[in-house]
Design brief:
The protein is an alpha/beta fold. It has helices at 17-22, 63-73, 100-111, 142-159, 173-183, 204-209, 229-241, 255-264, 275-286, 292-306, 316-322, and strands spanning 33-40, 47-48, 56-59, 77-83, 116-121, 135-136, 139-140, 163-166, 192-197, 245-249, 269-273, 310-313. Helix 2 (63-73) crosses helix 3 (100-111), helix 3 packs parallel to helix 4 (142-159) and helix 4 (142-159) packs across helix 5. It binds ligand PBG. Ligand PBG binds at residues 120, 122, 124, 132, 167-168, 203, 206, 274-275.
């Protein structure tokens, strides 16, 4: 090993703030962030999500006001999740023109047309059993589900969605959605695939937020957290099926996966900092253990450094408000 000291002194380039700013390799801005929101039908007042301090279920009838508030704060894109009061075995409400999924997209777009509205495309918020598709004999039926995902995507597109984001981890979902969108004339509507979605315990707080009571687990469709080669295959497959953007979810515990995909694919790459990641930071900060603002920026910065072009994060409003 060659020793370069004392010629090389790394600290020369860290000597003052201007120098550090000039040499900073990655930056974060509101252009990178997507805010996931929960919209509940039949609700009068904002309902706090106890497992996610600072996050509220938004009453459907007050969504316009909420979207205007987000836009005024600097949010440019939201991802919509419905909290349904009309669940059934297939999640049929999400395939209806007057269902919650279609109504909330339309309401959000009507409130602020320039707000990008991305539709989380899945069935778990609309099924009585909480699985992401159609169940037969305790098994989620892949091919029936992707057909339904195609129907849901067209419903979302007709309601005004700017992007379709399939999150159910069914094989062929991107292909089925692309085919359905194209057949209905939505040839220019992009698909952001949750391509590497792990069967993660970090989704715990989300299930309370979205009102999803799951029977069993999602291990027959979401990925084993111990695998990364499998994530590369999932990403390649989604790319071949026509995905426009790939995603890794969760984010922080999977930065290695993010980095590997970044080096293998030329598609834009998103990362989802999920509910459990958010809750850990919020509760640790509330206990006085960490400085919340600094940890939030560090965590989002780390996700960008690892390769994310876009980040879905519940901290988007906090970041917007702090105007960093
Ligand atoms: C729906 C979906 C989930 C999340 C996003 N879309 C839940 C799940 O897969 O169980 C989790 C998001 C989060 O934890 O913040 N399939």
């Amino acid at each position: 090993m060659v020793q370069n000291f004392p010629n090389v002194r790394m600290r020369r380039l860290r000597s003052n703030q201007v120098m550090r700013d000039l040499l900073q390799e990655h930056t974060l801005s509101m252009n990178d962030l997507i805010y996931p929101i929960f919209v509940e039908e039949g609700l009068d007042d904002y309902a706090p999500v106890n497992s996610m301090p600072g996050i509220f279920r938004i009453p459907e009838r007050r969504l316009d006001g909420a979207i205007k508030e987000f836009a005024a704060a600097g949010i440019r894109a939201v991802m919509t999740f419905g909290v349904s009061h009309n669940k059934d075995a297939t999640g049929s409400d999400a395939m209806k023109r007057d269902g919650l999924l279609a109504r909330m997209i339309k309401r959000a777009k009507d409130a602020v047309p320039e707000m990008m509205v991305i539709s989380d495309t899945c069935f778990c918020e609309y099924t009585s059993h909480g699985h992401c598709g159609v169940l037969h004999g305790g098994e989620v039926q892949n091919d029936h589900t992707i057909e339904n995902l195609g129907v849901q995507s067209v419903i979302a597109a007709e309601a005004g969605a700017d992007m379709i984001a399939p999150s159910s981890m069914m094989d062929g979902q991107v292909w089925a959605i692309r085919k359905a969108l194209d057949a209905s004339g939505f040839i220019n509507l992009p698909v952001m695939a949750y391509s590497s979605k792990f069967a993660s315990a970090f989704y715990g707080p989300f299930r309370a937020a979205a009102g999803c009571d799951l029977e069993g687990d999602r291990k027959t469709y979401q990925m084993n957290p111990m695998n990364s080669r499998e994530a590369l295959r999932e990403s390649e497959e989604d790319e071949a099926e026509g995905a426009d953007i790939l995603m890794v979810k969760p984010a922080m515990p999977y930065l290695d996966v993010l980095s590997q995909i970044k080096h293998r694919s030329l598609l834009p790459l998103a990362a989802y900092q999920v509910s459990g990641e958010y809750a850990m930071i919020k509760f640790a900060a509330a206990a006085g253990a960490i400085d919340e603002d600094r940890v939030v920026l560090e965590s989002l910065g780390a996700i960008k450094r690892a390769g994310a072009d876009l980040i879905l994060t519940y901290f988007a409003m906090d970041v917007a408000r702090s105007g960093f």
